[in-house]
Amino acid sequence: MANSLYNPADIPESPPPSGVLVPGYFRKSQSYVTHRSKGTNDWLLTFTLSGQGAFYLEDQVETCEHGDVIMLSPGTPHHYVTSGNIWEFMWVHFVPQPEWAPWFQTVYVNRALIKTHVTDVSVQQRLRAAFQRLIGDCEGFGVHRQALAMNAMEEILLVLTQRIESENRGVDPRIDEVLHHLANHFAEPLTIDELAALTRLSPSRLSHLFKAQVGESIIDTLIQLRLRHAARLLARTTERIVDIAALVGFQSPYYFSRKFHSQYGLSPSEYRKQHGK
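Structure tokens predicted for Helix-turn-helix domain-containing protein (277 residues):
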């Protein structure tokens, strides 16, 4: 995995072994350009933080801006450049692990270039943090640095795979953004107007589109997320029920108990008796 022992621009006669990781961070000016007439023998993934870049394939041009992720498959001839004043991006050359094959091949094989735009700020932050861990572990020391770096790489790919699978199923990216926001902020006092502002849709349009694609209203989905987390807390902690209600976002313990019973057929105390550890 050491950077000094592997050059992704080289095209060896046989593929490099799985587990190879060569990550980095660039902030490049207008003069930056990289040519690869034969492509590489590994996968290349880039995540643009700011500015603008562009990838040129034989019959395709893809620009990338803040939030864009581009992945190139092995053997894809290409070159890429800074197309604005600057291009700030994180990148990694990698060879997939064998255990990634079941989910990796369903999304990425037989495609020279894959592009997705990550709009959700929390997902952007997660990708950036995973990249930072990946780069730090690859450049650092320690017996377990390779395993730690591979965990970060796997997290990046799983987050992207989940997003691309949603796109392939026809889920509107704005609805996907709302779902991610609900999952990460379910305990907060959210409103339809605030969620609509994230997607630049009107509250009524967002509500209609969400119900059409998810099958439930935004409020019902939010309540489901809160109740699911409450059930975990009831089963695994000794927190008071009134405190759990507040922790997951319910202002009224009575309303929480009523909704919980409607969902699970048990009161919170009965659920704890049956499922608590």
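Confidence is low (pLDDT under 50) at residues 1-5.
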